[in-house]
Amino acid sequence: MSFTEKHEEITKQEWLDRLNSLHISRADMNRLIMNYLVTEGFKEAAEKFRVEAGIPMNMDTESLDERIKIRDAIQKGEIEEAMALVNNLHPELLDDNRYLYFHLQQQHLIELIRKKDVEGALQYAQTHLAERGEENADVLNELEKTLALLAFENPEDSPFGELLHPSQRQKVASELNSAILEVENRESTPKLANMLKLLLWAQHELDQKKVKYPHMTDLAKGEIEDPK
User: Fold this and answer.
1) Are residues 100 and 92 in contact, defined by beta-carbon separation less than 8 angstroms?
2) Distance between CA atoms of 178 and 193, rounded to whole angstroms?
3) What is the pTM of this model?
4) At what angle do helices 98-114 and 79-89 cross, to 10 degrees?
5) Cα–Cα distance between 144 and 6 in angstroms, integer?
6) Fewest 10 Å CB contacts: which of 8, 27, 45, 47?
């Protein structure tokens, strides 16, 4: 009998009991946390955690410092400064990864819109992004959404207001950070993020097979709902 033909159903409490019975060593958890902090470029937090947990950081501090400068520039909205830092660190990166380059240019456009610099935003879009949109349908779609912000008096409250949320800056910073790590032949995605992707994939596969199981609905809080 195949798995999908079995009628056994696991309750939420049984599932939680099984999870609680699994043993994950503190050392393994600490390594996961350190891997995340180092990969994402949180040097200060990594150094504090190194002292608290007593584990090595295992990183190139010079490269990490450069990645931190780039990330901080993006999170401050200083996109052209970030691009200059990238070009100094890896001159070929943005030429080789044109979609990443577009996202940085798009973010600069967003920052101009945030400053209410309508004329500057339109001029930048025309000079640097118009041709990119003609070459790529995905780029055009993203560009149109960004420029649509100009049509609203309060763009933060528009259907595309998420582009002005701090999380958009973080998204671009993470994309660039991963690209830098790939160029340096380093692990570009934290192990913890890969584990969460695996969890989502496994749940999707179970959903496709119509399997009833306790579903994790909130990854951040670890909330699990009863089988449906």
Assistant:
1) no
2) 12
3) 0.72
4) 150
5) 50
6) 8
* Cα-based torsion angle of the residue sequence 169, 170, 174, 180 in order, rounded to the nearest 10 degrees: 50
